[in-house]
């Protein structure tokens, strides 16, 4: 478990954390997260391009900072660009820089993010928000390693390690025509998917303990504790905003605390009254298990595991594929096969399908 302090300044467009040697905080005991951390340390020895994916607030920026921290170039800058926040007409100059007089308002030469990150790390956050026009410029700079500043003649060469992050499903965006496939392959040499907090609930008590102490120290308050019942409520919640939402909830509880114990009634109603929509890990809940008679074929076991997993993630195929350890395409192929099998069974039996069978098939397609 890592537990130093974190730098969580939110960027406008660009942020340069310079040669900060401060170690980013990663609180976890989840095997999936520890495995990611191991991968980060391996990848950090190379200059491979990394794409970090995961829902909002799962810790993509934390992992990007850890990658930089463990890299040989951690004494060089890490420059973060919020791709979604740059207006279309400024993207080229923001990324590549401009010469004096290149356009109205260009009163001096300005270095772009690539140059600012030279020898260090360039973190392109929210890459899924980048316009197609900007993607073309980015692809060229990434492929060639050289570019010209806007209005410039000279080729500038840089040496940067590129990390991108998104909460979007880029393969869906490629299909929809809003993300370039060639750029995707350039950025996605190594993909690191950060699981949502609801799939690693063992991290909740650790995060509560850590951030409770952080906020008690920050606001110079007496030590506080979450009662067992309050912790249970936090464990039963799905955390759609992931660690960021949990962190904010803890801060709010600590700030508003009169005594020394946080009890369930002090938690926001949106959390204490929420019903979990998801698979809750391997709890005592019998819906979390597959009940499979001995002698069931492996094919059938796989089918049942797929169906149950899909149900547990609200039919989100990307998430189900990640949980099951399949590529999304493999999951689709399997679902197509189940679909056609159930169709041919219906045809062969020449019987009217049960309504419930149809609902199950359509819910999976
Ligand atoms: N495992 C963790 N341990 C400690 N703090 C964490 C962890 N994961 C996330 N955080 C904290 O939660 C907040 C959100 O994390 P971060 O900004 O890295 O998420 P993100 O995936 O980049 O979110 P977004 O998609 O909204 O950009 C930050 O304050 C971060 O420090
Ligand atoms: Mg982020």
Explain this structure.
The protein has 15 helices and 12 strands. With 365 residues, it is an alpha/beta fold. The chain folds into 3 domains: 14-195, 3-Layer(aba) Sandwich (Rossmann fold), CATH 3.40.50; 201-272, Orthogonal Bundle (Helicase, Ruva Protein, domain 3), CATH 1.10.8.60; 286-364, Homeodomain-like (Arc Repressor Mutant, subunit A, Orthogonal Bundle), CATH 1.10.10.60. The strands form 4 sheets. A 6-stranded mixed β-sheet has the order 1-3-6-9-2-10. A two-stranded antiparallel sheet has the order 4-5. A hairpin with a 6-residue loop joins β7 and β8 (155-157). It is globular, with a radius of gyration of 24 Å. Mean pLDDT is 83; it is low at 1-12, 280-286 and 345-365.
